[in-house]
Known about the structure:
CATH class of the largest domain: Alpha Beta
Number of domains: 2
Number of helices: 23
Amino acid sequence: MAATMLRQVMKAPAATHHFSPLFFYSRRSISQTLIDISPPVKEALFYKHPVVALESAIITHGMPIPHNLETALKLEETVSAEGALPATIAFVKGRIKVGLTKEELEVLALKKEPAIKVSRRDFPAAISRKLNGGTTVAGTMMVANAVGIRVFATGGIGGVHRGVENTMDVSADLVELGRTPVIVVCSGAKAILDIPRTLEYLETQGVGVITIGRSDDFPAFYWAKSGCKSPYSVSSYVEAADFARAWGEIYKGTGSGLIFAVPVPEESAGDSAAMEAAIKIAVQDAEKQGVSGKDLTPFLLGEMNKLTLGAALTINKALVVNNAKTAARISVQLSNVNTHEGGRITVVGGCAVDRVVRVQSSPITLDGATWPGVISECAGGVGRNLAEAIGHLQISLQHNFKPLFVSAMGQDRTGELILEQTSQFVDTSGVRRMKGLSSAAYEVLLDAKGECRLVVGDDAVLSNVDVAWIKRQRLQNSRMVVLDANVPEKSIGQILESCQQTKIPVWFEPTDPRRAQVVVKSSPLWKTLSFASPNLKELRQMVNATGAAAPVLVNQTLDIQECAELAKFLVDQGVANLVITLGRHGCLVVNRNDAEHPFQSFYEQNADVPVTAKYYPIDTPNLEPVSVSGAGDCFAAALIVAASEKWPENVAVAWAMEAANLSLLSSKTVPADLQKLKLTKDKAMFQKVF
């Protein structure tokens, strides 16, 4: 049932999605024909990226103008900054919306049209009368559960009202928490309520209540401690995610919800005595004016703001933003599920269609004349090529898992072509599809010998591999992260930071001389790179970008000794392994490693071991290439796989050279013959430079 429902929501084939064991859909669901899910939210749910639901009653009824709109935008910004996707839920003209546009937020917040407060009982009225509406905690939980969002952030939940023995006023939020398996991150129940009775009611409903922080005290919304203890407490969002996993595995989506109570930040908390005095006055005013039912909470919050001269509103804004941050962190943590034992290789980089023009004459003169030639088209992009080649090579090693590819493309024919030629060997769930943008494309000009003479690229869409998108990927579950220079500078910095925290080796592929400097400029953590695979021109640019006193070049053409000195400069800075690709001349490896030993990552290397440089000449100098466009990518991919498998360096280089040869003999950038690459233990011959 769950898989069927998701396919209805996503309109995606069953084979492209699998479920985390954390939660399953509840049987109490809303018809999907009534719900409009925004494309970004639909995409995130399909790819199992972290999503946080946000309520809208706080916009329509909880805060005055313009604070409601400012807070709504701040909540979405906060969730995004933590690596999750915000999904504000509301009614717009009778349609249930999951993920609002800025224009829709403004309509609700600025009261351009009337809006009702929507809890469970109010759904039929909002739908049949085509009304706008702000969903309460209960209403938001219903919708979030229906579409598969597991984590929801709000300010405070509703509860048992003071004087319940006379009014029988118990919020529908508590009943919904007892039957809807959604994680609710809040600052407890609103302080205007009867908190002890609220906790008793939650216990009766079987709702899990856990305080996050240094205390086990259940927070009282405006201040951190209500004097009532939570049944459980955890010290961090990481422990909270562990608790949530256990909860989900036990109840499988058939049980109640889970409350994570987050105390208001200490610097923002109100004075409990003063706030309690204001609450008593507000409750008395409500009784005098006969305010009750769904109007009571908005009335009390408004009175609190007046009585405290705006202090209550300031506290409310601070705590709801803090809750959104915590919810996003929990959601990201919950999405971090290992894909297989030991992690897999993740590639972050460019994907494009390569339109290759091979002129049948040589040399080529760019004089505007028509030259006879052959034009072909295939999926390309350095990152994509590396990912596909790694996928083929892992088949040759009889591995049954795919590398994860993280990139961005348009929702167009070009993008479909790229996915069609990639997804068989690569997990493309990390590829972001951008509506209204064109997928990247490169025009590659080859001469009669297969040598690349000119490349024209249109790859603006790759700027959408941004920091927020990177944070949604499960990099910490990788065996190695490979990135190319097509990734935006800030995103490279984020990748280096994430991998440094979890000691995951990073491989950097510069792609071309103009972009080679980006990794050095992105973050001081470039010095933690485990591998970099530049050619000589790219190496020079990387060294220049350091701004330090680097070796002075005497020869502008290939000089192995000078090349080794340049590479040694970067290794002395911290980079563990420099693999300098020299085309038909072979490669140069500079590191603190013996050729008979496996490559050492930045976190494994011994800084006291002297730097060595080994020149590996190519062993097939007379090979007549069909195309050279994919040889470097196949060579690097084979080295990446061999390094992750901990093969000796000279064995890895020999295997990589074989992979490059297969590419040279194929018109395809990544030949399928890579799957048949022999598991040879041949050793590449080398000359020691120093």
